[in-house]
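Exam prep: given the inputs below (a chain plus copper (II) ion), describe the expected output before reading on.
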Amino acid sequence: MCPIDRRQFLQGTTASALLMASGGSGLLAAAAQGMPPAEATPDFNPDIELELDADIDEISILPGDTTRVWRYSGRVLRGRPQVLGASDGSGHIPIIRVRRGQKIRIRFSNRLPEESIVHWHGLHVPQRMDGHPMYAIAPGKRYVYEFVIDNRAGTYWFHPHPHGRTGHQVYHGLTGLFLVSDEEEDAAGLPRDELDLPLVIQDRSFNAGNQLVYIAAGMRERMMGFMGRQVLVNGTMDYQRMVPRTAHRLRLFNGSNATLYRLRWSDGKPLTLIGTDGGLLERPLTRETLTLAPAERADVWVDFAAHAPGEEIALEAESWSPMLVNITNMQDGAPATRGARAIARFRVGSGGARQTRLPPHLSTYPALRIEDAVNRGKPRSFQMSMMGGQALLNGRAFTRMDEVADNERVRLGTTEVWEFANDASFGMRMAHPMHVHNLQFRVIGRRGASHALSAGFTDEGLKDVVLVLPGERVRVLMKFENHTGIYLYHCHIVEHEDIGMMRNYLVQA
Ligand SMILES: [Cu+2]
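Solution:
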């Protein structure tokens, strides 16, 4: 597929401006007229203001030589310094911590040698703030984001979204967490501060000089999705942490490009799931294993008070390819036991156990009722396919920045059922984690396939990514609220997204 050049981009945005002239956003018109939003709006009075740069850096990941990475870093211009932190481990994954209802301004600077733009994954924001590739900015340019944080408490994240280059940029290190808290979460009484641990799971391959190795050029590799030879947690090869003998909240996030993980505790105890992509569940659930597809998050409660001082307990992972092959034994690292490998080890401290209680009630979901769906009996259907070097949705690739098919227009304020169909009777049979921008949906049904990974699915709660196995059809329920404009839906195997398995949908007034 041809990359989209600047001329096509400008043609596209002009067409968008015409398309949306009747009641739509005038922002595209601004883009078409060559006015990137590089300046802050004077009457937007933010609670939090940050500078965020995408830049090239050298960090220490493996023993010996440093590794050249692309990374986000930033500074707090307004707000508490704690708004911007970093993961433990290598410390190169930034974490933005905000409250629901706050107004935030982020001055993004592109210091990379190529175009980029930031997408706030899972956040409900106006079109111009969503990081659509039509807004990608050139090296040296700036893009100012301003929005109100309108999401419930949860583990969201951010990453680049320039068309055709997302895989490359994410892989080289451009990922950050965006954690939202709110009063409902406060009331749940969950572990916080140093007992609230984000764990970013990513796989990477390194050459003999400790440099990252990614896809050379081959289309076949993009079709397969890139899987690294080593699994990192928070940017480190051998993640270990001393933990006090009390309850912890682990925010597990699959930040890999293509690999699916099946997670379990080394001592065989079940995982206690308390949240998914869009925040806390209503009540805790237990699972023997958890399946996390790329971009999915799972909040897990664990009580280390149940362990003796000095005991070690590990989070173990099996790595699965999108073709549903277990690749754990093809990856490097300590020997796998029972098919899984320890990716994060917790050494329980020597102090006395601190009593804590797993809250029986965690949150209340926003109302989203199947009875309200305008297409309840006839879902909007999206067929995934992989053939001829392209990854397609309903036979279409992402070829123009503003293209919207008839089946991709929805009405503001309506509730709909969408069905992601992975029938794959021809072409390559692969699992696809489908992501919808601008909203959180509910998973309301699956049929057609079952696999060892199915038992660990995290379909509960509010979701923005759902894994669809080959042969499977998954139905989701969603409401288009507050914002009109063009948003994306796509496979979150980022190589698939880059080769076309991404489309626009248009929310019309
Ligand atoms: Cu895919």
